Amino acid sequence: MIRLGIVGYGHRMACFMGGPMKNVEPDFQVVGVVDPAEAFIRKRLADWGCTDQKEVPFYPDVATLVREGKPDGLLIGTNCAMHTPFAIQAAEYGLPLFLEKPVSTSMEQAVALEKAFRKSKTEVVVSFPLRVSPLCVRAQQAIESGEIGRPEHIAGLNYVPYGTVYYTPGSYQSLQGLFLQKATHDLDYMMGLMGSRVRRVGAMASKGRVFGGSKPAGLVCSKCDEAETCKESPKNRQRNGSASGKNKDHACVFSVDIGTPETGICEDSSSCVLEFESGATGVYTQVFFSRRDAGRRGSIVSGYDGTVSFDWYRNDITLVHHHKPFTDTFTSKGGANHFGGDDELASDFVDLIHGRIKRSRTPIETGLASVYACLAAKESSETGRFVEVRPVEM
Questions:
Q1: pLDDT band for position 5 (cuts 50, 70, 90)
Q2: What is the topology classification, in CATH, of domain 134-206+262-335+368-388?
């Protein structure tokens, strides 16, 4: 039985532990938790798939958890701003670490995190499920086999059908924008497909044009006079099939609580132009007001000899041979967490603990490379200038 310590036991970590971790390693024990919401978490431990965990001890910090709980591995699933501080603490112990993305939310954090791990023996599984999902792995195989020739260009798309989850009171302050929250996934797998890190970014973003507005603070649908006509009311989301997640009473996405471009607000959409260290180029676009069948996420990678494209929502991949009369198509089984990538991450984490592998497929370097690229995109969108991406030096 493997012994696990958890720092930050919120919804994401609960889903990961009760789903992919249970699938990969049914016999695990949570031996300690660091989280101030102890009373709330204790009520839900059983529901979250942990067996016999009502007596799990809660500790004030990582040091006490490691000393007294004696875990075989650690998982960090706190709010985004706390990923770096806790990861720096975990770096001292050399235990396999599962670290949620983004690994940092500022340049100061990222630089400190890189410094902490330069001499650390801690092997990290960064939560980048897209890179290891079956569709992305198959596309990677097509590229590495030479079927499209040298990859020269990539176009990544993310039309998010559940985007309203990013427009709640205080969301921007926690997330620091959607380059860091969403594009961190996509730029990671795009760099993986291209076999090269991003060197330079030019980006732009639209803010406050769709979400946010002048509705009063504290407004929820059940208290709103416009609930009958508002497209975002639970009733109309249900009627139109546009609900994201649980369809229930919620904070108004058009209120002053959501923020403004001046005070801070998550973008409605954002895009960037990418120059890779290899000399190849690419583009990436994310849209957060898409709904229903408009959902799309994937990439098109082109070389002189062919083009490979895939879409996770459609679970398909197409390989076009430019100089042969053939086009190959493949489909993948759908329905798994993060398009099947979460099971792969759980498997890597468990294999690290058991000593079956010595290196993660999503090590700390990938988390840092993605954060540096996303921070450059954020800065570019705010300044209107191309921004050089800080290299990872580990």
A1: very high
A2: Dihydrodipicolinate Reductase; domain 2 (3.30.360)
